[in-house]
Amino acid sequence: MSARAPGLRILAIALPFPFAIHVARGARVCRLVAWVSFLMLANGLVHVVGILTHRRYSPGVITGCFLYLPLSILFMRAVARECAVSCRMVLLAALIGGVPMFIHGYLIVFRGSRLF
After folding, report:
1. CA distance 23 to 111
2. Is 67 within 8 Å of 32 (Cβ atoms)?
3. CA distance 76 to 93
4. From 86's CA, which of 7, 19, 65, 73 has a CA 20 to 30 Å away?
5. Does residue 104 contact residue 114 with C-beta atoms inside 8 Å?
6. Sequence-separated contacts (24+) of 46-55 with Cβ below 8 Å
7. In Å, what is the CA distance from 46 to each residue of 3, 103, 110?
8. Distance from C-alpha of 104 to C-alpha of 84, rounded to nearest angstrom
9. Sequential pLDDT tens for the chain (116 residues)
10. What is the pTM of this model?
């Protein structure tokens, strides 16, 4: 995908958003916090899988391990607690919300190409 297709990038990120909202049935603010954590969780996991697969350093793995993963877990726990949403529902919403990042990460790590 070229740099001239920003609409497709926005669509790839925003497409799972309604599904994540439907799954996480808490207050509006909690959904927003949960959505941010979905992308952070997926980003952190993709970087960890990348270094385990290629057995070499990957830019972003430090941020992924020490910022994105811990913060996303804290956010998801807070959403579950504060919005009275089950941990299972929050995790399901996180997995649905992270689909674009998981696809993008798969293409980078295993195919050597990019989604956007």
Report:
1. 31
2. no
3. 10
4. 65
5. yes
6. 46/101, 46/102, 46/104, 46/105, 46/108, 46/109, 49/105, 49/109, 50/105, 50/108, 50/109, 53/109, 53/110, 54/109
7. 22, 10, 11
8. 32
9. 445 455 555 555 565 556 555 655 555 656 666 677 667 888 899 999 999 999 999 888 998 899 889 888 888 888 788 777 788 888 887 887 788 888 888 888 899 887 66
10. 0.68
Token reading at 76: 């998801």
* pLDDT of amino acid 10: 59
- In degrees, to the nearest 5, what angle opens at C-alpha 80 toward C-alphas 94 and 16? 25
Tokens of 81: 């607690």
**What Å distances lie between residue 102 and 9, 17, 27, 29, 41, CA to CA?**
14, 14, 26, 24, 10
| Residue 97 three-state SS | helix
Nearest to 26 by CA among 73, 71, 76, 79: 79
